[in-house]
Design goal:
Two copies of one chain form a homodimer.
Chain A: E1 5-11, H1 19-32, E2 39-45, H2 48-53, E3 57-59, H3 65-72, H4 88-101, E4 103-110, H5 112-127, E5 133-138, H6 154-174, E6 178-183, H7 190-193, E7 209-211, H8 219-233, E8 236-241, H9 252-262, H10 275-288, E9 293-297, H11 301-304, H12 311-330, E10 335-344, E11 347-354, H13 356-359, E12 371-372, E13 376-377, H14 380-389
Parallel strand pairs in A: 1-2, 1-4, 4-5, 5-10, 6-8, 6-9, 7-8
Antiparallel strand pairs in A: 2-3, 10-11, 12-13
Helix pairs in contact in A: 1-3, 1-12, 4-5, 6-14, 8-10
Chain lengths: ~400, ~400
């Protein structure tokens, strides 16, 4: 049975390049799917759950086709986001507003924390016997949601990382040295692994070394890896996840900060934007005596850079939102929309739905079958991730031109 | 009179997204311009002047149309680059190789240091009575060459910075806080100023504050600026040039490092990739007591990112190279190719040539007429810089939608 009432949409957590595609998808699903006549107002919660408890909404009912098209191509959460993690009391307040507003459809676009919020709100409503359709629409550049082949937002972030590495590899080739790039992903290495997507097989292209959080870090091995590559190529381009940690679970950057404290240097660097890069660069300078070591931290650029979003990613983000609305209007169902792959080539996916409890607050990690010797990513990862970024710019080099050296 | 002999092309200094367009331009100029029959071999110097003194060249004679097209769209110096700054003795070695190789045409693609190298080589040849055509082809993301309206490489870097800020502004709007982005440009603020190119007039878009090296930095004013913006918008997006310095000329990052030394914290951060961002963020945290302050340093990404080079920039880089070759084949002339603007709208330029001594080792700064109150860039800068980046992605916000807040 289709409920009748108002709908609330929220966007939560870190921005992505396509999170507004999901927002537009939900809106269009509510405007167009069977049962759409039962939806009265479409309300956007300003800054996620915080907007709900503050009763702070934007009325999106009747938003034009033109505006929807433009909004879909705008990166980052147009409704505003929040880092709030609601507990039971917070959910109670959400639920009170929903009742007051006659909200019968709730859509929350976000990562695994957001799916947990969705689950909590849903359970609060059920306990109260209040009919509410609760849907989680997946979003995360980390690509770490269970029950999914991949997650909207990842493809575009992966495309940014890949394009950055294609250029940085040419940079590193032109002015050889050791270069470390720090990439987002505290627990899951999918995005860091994407650094290899533009690397040409059978070339000297970097990244030459890739470190993901799924494999414990060893300083000794790291220095041996860098030394080997640097000796072979006269240069070394490294992709390192911000979440890289030692065997005992201590993040590299935290351990380094402790060492600094021990040395009475203060922990100035810990909150630093380039902290981990500096730590890793310092290891190489001290351990290998190489002077030209440089580190960049990609920072926020990788999550909301404008203008190079992946088309596939945008399409899937939109469709996920649309289907959440379509399911919500189709009957007594709550859940999270899933994307699973049907085939690699031609690339094809199918959409499904799972219970909120199945996905909430769980984390998927990169399958270590892709990791080679703890310091590289296998070419088979290209088969997995490349369809998600779509076409990448390609480069040529002059390596095969005749040398006239004496 | 057109000389007969071989040609050498080198690429120097930091990479850009279009430096290979200039390389292809020189090659095509040598293959196609009147007098091209006098050019025997086209040699690419591997890693700039270092390749010349090591007699290490690639033979580019007869490089195919297809390869030239692909090469033009590959960022960073395909011949390899170098940071060597030749002195008279070094130039003597260059000149010896040129004589041995019967080199009569020399093209050096680079910034103001490279034009000085070109000048030195030219003078060495003249002193020896050896006929040699020496051409400098401008390249720098810093846009700091005199005698030019702008410089190839700048438009693409400016486009990257503008696109990054468009996305980061939406990010900052979604999750409000204080965000600092550090941009390249030790002496000239052109690239930092480009952070405003995607900012919509009459909006709350950031960057809200822009600091360039042309204006002395004052910590007191900085904190007052940030406080004002943060109070007004509840957020603050800041663009800061890496070259920002105090009235006495001390770079912000160096003074901070000294302070850290005084506090017995060591100078670990000075070489850090995020050093300046951390310093500025620390100032705000301490001075204003705001917790959510984040800093990113764009680093190498802004100079060789693949896939979003400016079309105008690419075309001008190519034409500059082509014309250098055409001039070299046309008679007894050395010099540096210049670009000057004929009109803003429709955007149009004319190319010229100046003596190497006029451009060598000089630096052009951002006209302070563009700087507002030491902390912002005037909209008139858009008229100057936007034609160089070409179209930027645009965003929409939901700010004008009806609020349903109680």
């Amino acid at each position: 049975m289709t409920l009748k009432g108002n709908a609330v949409i929220g966007q939560s957590g870190g921005p992505t390049a396509v999170i507004n595609q999901s927002l537009v998808g939900v809106i269009e699903g509510l405007m167009q799917s069977p049962g759409h006549e039962n939806v009265k107002q479409i309300l956007g919660a300003r800054h996620a759950v915080r907007g709900i408890i503050n009763d702070d909404f934007i009325d999106l009912t009747g938003i034009s086709q033109d505006m929807r098209a433009k909004l879909g191509h705008t990166s980052s959460a147009a409704l505003g986001s929040s880092r709030d993690k609601p507990d039971a009391a917070y959910c109670e307040r959400i639920f009170e507003v929903f009742k007051k507003r006659d909200v019968r459809f709730f859509f929350y676009i976000g990562g695994n924390d957001s799916s947990d919020t969705c689950r909590l709100v849903n359970e609060t409503a059920k306990a109260d016997g209040y009919e509410l359709r609760c849907f989680h629409v997946p979003k995360t550049i980390d690509n770490d949601l269970v029950c999914n082949d991949h997650t909207p937002g990842f493809g575009s972030a992966a495309k940014f990382v890949a394009q950055a590495f294609i250029g940085d590899n040419m940079d590193n080739k032109a002015l050889p040295g050791i270069k470390i790039n720090i990439i987002m992903g505290r627990h899951a290495g999918f995005l860091t692994a994407a650094s290899m997507l533009g690397r040409r097989p059978d070339s000297d292209d970097g990244p030459h070394l890739i470190y993901v959080p799924e494999v414990a870090f060893s300083q000794e091995k790291f220095l041996a890896d860098v030394d080997r590559v640097y000796t072979k190529h006269g240069r070394c381009l490294i992709a390192m996840s911000e979440g890289v940690h030692y065997e005992d679970g201590t993040p590299l950057v935290v351990k380094a900060a402790k060492d600094i404290e021990t040395d009475a240097h203060g922990n100035v660097q810990l909150s630093g934007s380039g902290a981990l890069g500096d730590v890793a660069a310092g290891m190489i300078r001290e351990g290998l005596g190489v002077k030209r070591v440089r580190a960049d931290t990609f920072g926020y650029l990788q999550r909301a850079f404008m203008g190079i979003a992946s088309n596939v990613d945008g399409r899937e983000a939109r469709r996920s939102g649309f289907l959440a609305a379509a399911y919500a209007l189709s009957g007594d169902r709550d859940g999270s929309i899933t994307i699973n792959r049907v085939s690699d080539d031609p690339y094809d996916v199918e959409y499904g739905i799972v219970d909120l409890a199945e996905i909430a607050a769980k984390t998927k990690l990169l399958d270590t079958k892709y990791v080679i010797d703890g310091c590289d990513i296998d070419q088979s990862y290209h088969t997995y991730a490349f369809p998600l970024t779509g076409g990448l710019p390609f480069v040529v080099t002059l390596d095969k031109f005749p040398r006239t050296s004496p």
